[in-house]
Design brief:
mainly alpha
């Protein structure tokens, strides 16, 4: 998932981000507005991680979201 897709789908993905990073408040997630670097900064501050660690977590999360979408599309075409 690229950054434009994240921004465009942020309202739907905000709940998943909340599940992934439970320490983040709704206000923090609203402030991120699907911007990767803003989300990285919020995670860094809330969890005491380095910027690189937080960025790695976000990138991993985005890849997992992509994999889930691919799996859902594959299941839809086989049924």
């Amino acid at each position: 998932m690229d950054t434009e897709q994240l921004k465009g789908n942020w309202k739907q993905l905000k709940g998943r981000a909340r599940q992934q990073w439970g320490k983040l408040t709704d206000d923090q997630l609203d402030q991120a507005q699907g911007r990767v670097e803003e989300l990285v900064g919020q995670i860094q501050a809330a969890y005491g991680k380095t910027r690189e660690q937080a960025r790695d977590e976000v990138n991993k999360w985005l890849k997992e979201l992509d994999a889930g979408k691919r799996d859902a599309r594959a299941n839809a075409t086989t049924h």
